[in-house]
Design goal:
heterodimer; A: 330 residues; alpha+beta; 12 strands; globular; B: 763 residues; Aldehyde Oxidoreductase, domain 3; Aldehyde Oxidoreductase, domain 4; 3 domains; 19 helices; 33 strands
Chain lengths: 330, 763
């Protein structure tokens, strides 16, 4: 671990000020990801601003009937919050599918949005990685890529975003509230994370001098017909090979609204609005789900070890939609 | 028919300790943090070392620039091949008790790189954090040479090893004509297997803390399975006087074979301590735990031929296994196949392929955990083709002699394992048809397999000291890697002298104790336990002699065989009212202590006339999600025949742990290599998957009664390895029974199951 300086922010304004003009400074809250990355030398901040004491840990009602999840509310507290469980069960399920109980007790919601990929090459400073060292190449492209992207990747990076929580947030059309030197703004969830393109070292559209203060959930929570399905190499404490957040509104057997987002397949939570649109007006049954699943995977591209994710993702989508709809399919 | 054991009378006495489920004598220390591990020892002025690892797989270091690291205040020194002191030159000086044929790896010896993650420098600093930071600043330039790490790409470039490692036997000569018999067989199977590279991943990472005393002597706290092995290695490599070095290893947080050879952190810590004349600790990081030995990747072929009634007529087992460029690591992979079943036409073949990797290293049931599952999956496929029950097929070809040698087994209760395991599992209710059990989307499958491991014994010495207070201290330089050595040795000693385990203290993990072999291969109870018994027997004899000489004493004139020991007393067998306490005997005889040392030597003649082994039958139930390919192992019954079980509690823990690992071997464990870089990539335990609690369901362990007078005076065979051997096969066979998909490429991950299902559907 390289030497770094440390300061503590007491207000959001303090925090933003501490970052201004200091490109090597980073916020630290739960520290469950950043500290590991610093030990692995994959991230090298010169200064850490501890934001863990900022008053951003509440979960509150919003005026439009939704919920505001404080950026510093812990993953565990969020998942077990009664309002989250009853109104956004898909989100609760997604959070509990991630990490371990110990990590969820420490990790914050804002930190979860900003966690870095688990690509082996990103973690191993003895290998090339454009995300860690821009211009050094992508080791995974020709190397071990079983856990890598099948959608939206580039020749510069095939890493995937590791979050479960974010997949559900994408499906729920959450909004990220951020504060910077120019004041507060909101970022639609779909625009928060980005695809790698030729700048894979940039994960999000959050400004280098901005802080996430909250995540707003809209009123619509799809509590009746939604689920989060995670397929992984062991029953717990493993990142998703493929995960699916699926949410439906069904009237008389017909789908009135649909949300579909995937994890473990792309550089960002992969929401597919076209596939969602295909589902609307269709009967809530296997054939509709299969058509949507095929549509999601239409542009998918496998590499040496991860091509299996394409049919697996199709199956997982069909399964998740079926579970959400409460119908039996394979 | 289960042989009735004839337990020596003394062991039947009340208070007898052998066979009791005694809780770990070191349990309290462990759960309260009182047990100290190698990296937890400290000394004033302790310096910390951190290792710099190679980023190339093969080539040479052309330049090392340590100036940036050395410029940091608090960095004491950076050791490299350029500034190392003079070290031993001959290969034999670098050999250790588990070294195979070849030239052992020498850390920091020269500029040559022979594998990725090879240690190339050691940074020593005032703190661990500083050393780790400074290690990042060491600039190493390489001239890379072409490397090869892909076994599949080089599987034809092999050689046949000789007797290249202790305990290794090359395959026996072919019997009959297996290839012809296979071609002519009424029913046959011919399968290719691959077993992934696996790393040991003990919870405790390898570490050595070297305490440098003012007089230049060293106390070395090392993570090892053999304190004396580490001791002699250090002394040889650094040309140190044996009396100036003491290696201690009181507690080891798991090893599974990774501590059988001294690892490079030990070298580094001793190097730094002797050069800087300070106490130094070097601990490996989790990724660096992938920088030394591993279970080697293996490609196998098993072909079986049989008559329609299930009689095996042909058995071919071939294996190609990786070793390093510098050593011939060998393990017994195929020989078991010639031993497990009666068959007239057998051909076994074992070859090595050199890759640019660190030398592989024994890992729990080395060879057997790779080879036996291949045989047992092939047997399952044969049973399926024959339309025969898998247990019945095994019984049909059962043998009480070892067909490889023609020698009878000293004991082999495998038949009882099949019977008791099947009964406990409910095997009789199995519908043999694959895909015959389903619950919703879950396909349920029942599979079974057998396992086998050797019952080895080495020489060992133990010393027993009985105090006038009736407390017994016993010592031998063996190890307890979490297996329960402290506990079972305490029991064996207490048993001989009729003491409570509370009155016995056992010492291990100290190179200054009487000689013990490295702790591996399931031979510790057999080797060291026999020595403990022998030493305590001598103490016992002296007590009896002293008691018989007590004029007017209750046992005056009594003969050795007329006394039993119970509750701290010597008691006349014929008349239990005639008794005298151990302390009274010693006081009367003016003995402050009785000290006896004994060496146990295997029953060489009897052993040479027998085959000796442990056996198991494993029954497993899996649930496979047909849509997603995920597998849950919902139930495992493991029936074990391993002679006398000294402690059913610690033994059961051993078997349960091995079953968990077997689940990992079957479904999860795999080290991925990037062949472009020649480097292991998933080198942490987030991405190298071992089973988590949620993967582990019901595990039921049965110890089948087995009596053996050949194996050793205790009749115990050891249970460290046998628990894992058949497990991967039982699970693979259960998956086949559930799904109709036969996967021979371990681990059986989601992708392989989905691909198999797709193939079977004919998509």
């Amino acid at each position: 671990m390289r030497a770094f300086t440390y300061s503590r922010a007491d207000t959001v304004e303090d925090a933003v000020r501490a970052l201004a003009g200091n490109p090597d400074a980073r916020f630290v809250a739960g520290g469950t990801n950043l500290l590991d990355l610093m030990k692995a030398d994959a991230m090298r901040p010169a200064h850490l601003v501890d934001i863990s004491r900022l008053p951003l840990d509440r979960i509150e009602e919003t005026e439009d009937g939704g919920l505001r999840l404080g950026a510093l509310a812990r993953n565990a507290d969020t998942a077990w919050d009664e309002r989250v469980r009853s109104r956004y069960p898909m989100l609760s399920k997604a959070i509990l599918a991630g990490a371990s109980a110990q990590l969820r007790n420490m990790a914050t919601n804002g930190g979860n949005l900003l966690q870095r990929t688990r690509c082996y090459y990103f973690y191993d400073s003895g290998t090339p990685c454009n995300k860690r060292e821009p211009g050094s190449g992508c080791g995974a492209l020709t190397g071990v890529n079983r856990i890598h992207a099948i959608l939206g990747a580039s020749e510069h990076c095939i890493a995937v975003h590791p979050s479960d929580l974010c997949v559900a947030l994408a499906a729920l059309e959450a909004t990220v509230r951020v504060t910077g030197p120019r004041g507060e703004r909101t970022i639609p969830f779909a625009e928060f994370h980005r695809l790698p393109g030729d700048t894979p070292h940039i994960d999000t559209t959050l400004g280098a001098d901005e802080i996430v203060t909250a995540i707003d959930l809209p009123a619509r929570g799809f509590a009746e017909h939604s689920t989060y399905l995670k397929v992984r190499d062991r029953a717990s404490y493993a990142f998703a090979l493929v995960s699916v957040a699926a949410a439906l509104e069904i009237e008389g057997g017909t789908i009135r609204a649909a949300r579909l987002a995937l994890g473990g397949v792309a550089h960002k939570p992969w929401r597919d609005t076209e596939a969602e649109a295909m589902l609307v007006g269709k009967p809530a049954e296997a054939a509709s789900f299969a058509a949507a699943a095929q549509a999601v995977l239409r542009g998918a591209k496998g590499h040496a070890h991860n091509a299996f994710k394409i049919p697996l993702a199709e199956r997982a989508i069909v399964r998740a939609l079926s579970e959400a709809a409460g119908v039996q399919t394979p | 028919m289960i042989a009735k054991p004839s337990i020596p009378d003394v062991l039947r006495e009340p208070g007898a300790q052998i066979g009791k489920p005694v809780s770990r004598v070191d349990g309290r220390l462990k759960v309260t943090g009182g047990a100290k591990y190698a990296a937890e020892f400290s000394a004033p002025g302790l310096a910390h070392g951190y290792i710099v690892s190679s980023t190339i797989a093969r080539g040479r270091i052309t330049r090392i620039d340590t100036s940036a690291a050395l410029a940091l205040p608090g960095v004491l020194h950076v050791f490299t091949h350029e500034n190392r002191p003079s070290l031993a030159w001959f290969d034999r000086k670098w050999k250790d008790d588990d070294a195979p044929k070849g030239s052992p790896f020498r850390p920091l010896y020269d500029a040559e790189i022979i594998h990725s993650l090879q240690p190339v420098a050691l940074v020593v600093a005032e703190s661990f954090e500083l050393a780790r930071y400074a290690a990042r600043l060491v600039q190493v330039e390489y001239e890379a040479a072409p490397h090869r790490t892909d076994l599949h790409a080089h599987r034809d470039d092999t050689f046949t090893p000789g007797k290249d490692k202790g305990g290794f036997q090359p395959p026996p000569k072919p019997r009959g004509d297996a290839d012809r018999a296979l071609a002519e067989a009424e029913v046959s199977v011919d399968l290719e297997f691959t077993q992934a590279t696996e790393h040991h991943n003990p919870m405790e990472m390898h570490a050595s803390t070297v305490i440098h005393h003012e007089d230049g002597t060293l106390a070395v706290y090392d993570k090892t399975q053999g304190a004396q092995n580490s001791h002699s290695w250090i002394c040889n490599v650094f040309n140190l006087s044996k009396s100036d070095v003491r290696v201690l290893s009181p507690f080891v947080g798991g090893a599974f074979g990774s501590g059988l050879r001294p690892q490079h952190q030990l070298f580094m810590a001793v190097l730094a301590a002797t050069q800087l004349k300070r106490s130094v600790r070097v601990e490996l990081s989790r990724p660096q735990m992938f920088s030394f030995g591993h279970r080697p990747e293996t490609i196998q072929r098993v072909a079986l031929g049989a008559r329609k009634d299930g009689t095996l007529t042909a058995l071919i087992h071939e294996a190609v296994q990786e070793s390093s460029q510098n050593e011939n690591y060998v393990e017994i992979v195929v020989n078991w196949s010639g031993q497990q079943y009666k068959c007239d036409n057998v051909r076994l073949d074992y070859k090595l392929c050199r890759l640019d990797v660190h030398t592989p290293l024994d890992q729990r049931a080395p060879g057997a955990a790779t080879g036996v599952p291949a045989l047992e999956i092939a047997m399952d496929e044969l049973a399926h083709k024959l339309g025969m029950d898998p247990v019945e097929l095994r019984l049909k070809n059962y043998t009480d002699t070892d067909p490889n040698t023609g020698k009878p087994f000293s004991s082999k209760e495998l038949r009882a394992c099949f019977q008791q395991g099947a009964e406990r599992f409910g095997w009789a209710k199995r519908n043999p048809k694959p895909r015959s059990m389903r619950e919703g989307r879950q396909l349920i499958g029942w599979g079974m397999a057998s396992g086998v491991w050797d019952a080895m014994q080495g020489q060992a010495v133990a010393k027993a000291t009985l105090g006038v207070d009736g407390r017994l201290t016993v010592g031998s330089a063996t190890a307890d890697i979490g297996t329960g050595t402290y506990t079972v040795m305490t029991q064996i000693a207490a048993d001989v002298l009729g003491l409570s385990v509370k009155d016995v203290t056992f010492h291990l993990g100290d190179s200054s104790l009487p000689m013990a072999p490295i702790e591996g291969g399931s031979w510790t109870v057999s080797s060291v336990g026999s020595a403990v018994k022998a030493a305590c027997d001598r103490v016992r004899d002296r007590l009896v002699t002293a008691a018989s000489k007590m004029k007017g004493g209750p046992l005056a004139g009594i003969g050795n065989q007329e006394v039993v020991f119970a509750d701290g007393h010597l008691v006349a067998k014929a008349d239990p009212s005639r008794r005298v306490s151990i302390t009274d005997v010693m006081r009367a005889s003016e003995l402050l202590t009785i000290e006896e040392e004994a060496r146990s030597v295997p029953y060489l003649l009897a052993r040479s006339r027998h085959a000796l082994g442990t056996h198991s039958a494993i029954f497993a139930e899996v649930r496979v999600d047909e849509g997603l390919g995920t597998v849950q192992v919902t139930r495992v019954v493991s029936a074990i025949a391993a002679g006398r079980i000294i402690n059913p509690k610690t033994a059961r823990s051993q078997i349960m742990g091995a079953v968990v690992w077997g689940i990992g071997m079957a479904l999860e464990e795999e080290t991925f290599t990037d062949h472009t870089l020649g480097r292991y990539m998933n080198h942490d335990i987030a991405e190298y998957h071992i089973p988590v609690n949620a993967d582990v369901h019901d595990i039921d362990v049965i110890f089948v009664e087995e009596h053996d007078e050949v194996v050793n005076p205790l009749g115990a065979k050891g249970v460290g390895e046998i628990g894992i051997v058949g497990v991967p096969a039982a699970i693979a066979n259960a998956i086949f029974h559930a799904t109709g998909v036969r996967v021979c490429d371990l681990p059986i991950t989601v992708d392989k199951i989905l691909e198999g299902l797709r193939r079977n559907r004919g998509d």
